UniProtKB/TrEMBL annotation:
Signal peptide: none annotated. It comes from Hymenobacter armeniacus. The lineage of its organism: Bacteria, Pseudomonadati, Bacteroidota, Cytophagia, Cytophagales. SUPFAM superfamilies: Putative DNA-binding domain. It holds the Pfam family HTH_17. It comes from the Bacteria. Residues 46-91 form the Helix-turn-helix domain. Coiled coil: none annotated. Residues 90-124 are annotated as: Disordered. This is Helix-turn-helix domain-containing protein.
Length: 124
C-alpha cells in the first residue's frame, strides 16, 4: 500500500506545479482528441417567477396559476428545487401585450384611483 507523501511547498511552488500539470493535460487533450472540439450551446436565459410576472405585467400568483393550468409548462425548468422560466419560451407563450391565457393586458389602474380625472363621486 502506498502511503501519501507530504512534500512541503510554498504557495508559489504549488501554483507553478499546478500550472505545469494543467498545461500538460491541455497539451495531451489537444494532441490526442478524437475529433473536432465540441461546440458550446448558447446559454438559455432563465427568469425567476417574479421576473416572469413582470414580463407579463401580472402578479407571481398568476404565473403559478398559469403553470398549474399547463399554460407555461413548456417554459418551466426546475433548478435546485426552484422553478425558473425560459425567456424564449415565455415569448412564444405570449407577449407582454398578449398573455398566455389569451386575455389582453389591461391597465392596472382602477377607476377612481390615481388622479381622479373624469371620475364622478358616488351619490349615496
Amino acid at each position: 500500500m502506498d502511503l501519501p507523501l507530504y512534500i512541503p511547498l510554498t504557495l508559489p511552488q504549488l501554483e507553478a506545479r499546478l500550472a505545469a500539470v494543467v498545461r500538460q493535460e491541455l497539451h495531451h487533450q489537444q494532441t490526442h482528441s478524437p475529433g473536432p472540439a465540441p461546440t458550446l450551446t448558447p446559454v438559455e436565459e432563465l427568469l425567476s417567477p417574479a421576473q416572469a410576472a413582470e414580463f407579463f405585467g401580472v402578479c407571481k400568483g398568476t404565473v403559478f396559476e398559469w403553470l398549474r393550468r399547463g399554460l407555461l409548462s413548456a417554459a418551466a425548468v426546475k433548478v435546485g428545487g426552484k422553478r425558473y422560466f425560459k425567456r424564449s419560451a415565455l415569448a412564444t407563450a405570449g407577449t407582454p401585450d398578449q398573455r398566455p391565457d389569451g386575455r389582453r393586458q389591461t391597465s392596472r389602474r382602477v377607476a377612481g384611483m390615481g388622479d381622479n380625472k373624469g371620475v364622478q363621486p358616488k351619490a349615496w
